[in-house]
Amino acid sequence: MSVKTLQINGVDVAVEEGATILQAAREAGIHIPTLCHLDGVSNVGACRLCLVEVAGINKLLPACVTQVAEGMSVSTHNEQINEYRRMIVEMLFAEGNHVCAVCVANGNCELQDLAIEVGMDHSRFAYRFPEREVDITHPQFGIDHNRCVLCTRCVRVCDEIEGAHVWDVAYRGAAAKVVTGLNQPWGAVEACTSCGKCVDACPTGSIFRKGATVAEMEKDKAKLEFLVTARERKEWTR
Ligand code: SF4
Ligand code: SF4
Ligand code: FES
Are residues 198 and 108 located together in one domain of the fold? Predict the structure, then answer.
């Protein structure tokens, strides 16, 4: 195993070759905001919240999908990056219908947490107020597309951890949305094992447990983390 050395915010960091900038930063105790990243599943670089500056490269790079290189000098926070992150969060709020006051995830939502972290108090973009459906055909769970930020964490956790591959992304551009069973009502998808991993993986109140009311929805991240990392740590066979 070879080791790469780099600097993040002026701090010397040494990590295994092949690690991402996000992994290196976390090992050094440096926080980089993320939304589509979920520990234990593949990275897709979809949300761009983790953009960082690398000296000598004239564009910002997503830390979750950029591997470290020897001698790299990375800045995770500066005025321009902070402004871009704030704009991304503002666009996410303007793009969907996020009415926190009536959301099951109010107070337990990663999008809300990000808004606070980047200092967003309003969106400077015009709200689109798209017309989107809610699917409550599954006996235990529901999906409200109004709150979906298209992070695809549900798609990846269901495919890569549960092995059921119920979710996919369909359509393009503004019409893009996650679908179950190649666009069947969720309740009609026989491949769904009702494991609930997608519920815990979803960063917003988009996928929810039926019966949860406003601000009641708690996600069990510890359970998900155990499930996604237990195989690597051989915890099944201990
Ligand atoms: S409940 Fe489990 S199997 Fe069903 S869609 Fe969610 S992650 Fe996939
Ligand atoms: S339903 Fe939730 S987990 Fe799935 S893409 Fe939308 S926000 Fe992400
Ligand atoms: S967390 Fe890196 S692009 Fe979303």
Answer: yes
Gap from CA of 7 to ligand 1 centroid (Å): 40
CATH number reported for the structural domain that contains residue 40 in this entry: 3.10.20.740
pLDDT at 216: 72
For a mutational test of ligand 1's pocket, the pick from 159, 186, 194, i.e. the residue with the most ligand atoms closer than 8 A to its C-beta, is: 194
- Is the CB of residue 187 below 6 angstroms from any atom belonging to ligand 1? no
Q: Which domain holds residue 65?
A: 3-77
| Residue 46 to residue 84: CA distance in whole angstroms | 15
Final residue before a domain boundary, out of 77, 108, 129: 77
The pTM assigned to this predicted structure is 0.92
Percent of the chain topping pLDDT 90: 88
Output the CA–CA distances (angstroms, integers) from residue 17 to 21, 66, 152, in the order listed. 11, 12, 27
Of 47, 2, 51, 44, residue with least CA distance to 22: 51
Report pLDDT digits (tens) over 5-24.
999 999 999 999 999 999 99
Cβ(153) – ligand 2 distance below 6 Å: yes
Higher-pLDDT residue of 149 and 1 is 149
47 and 141: one domain?
Answer: no
Q: Which residues contact 152 (CB under 8 A, 6 or more apart)?
A: 36, 44, 46, 167, 169, 178
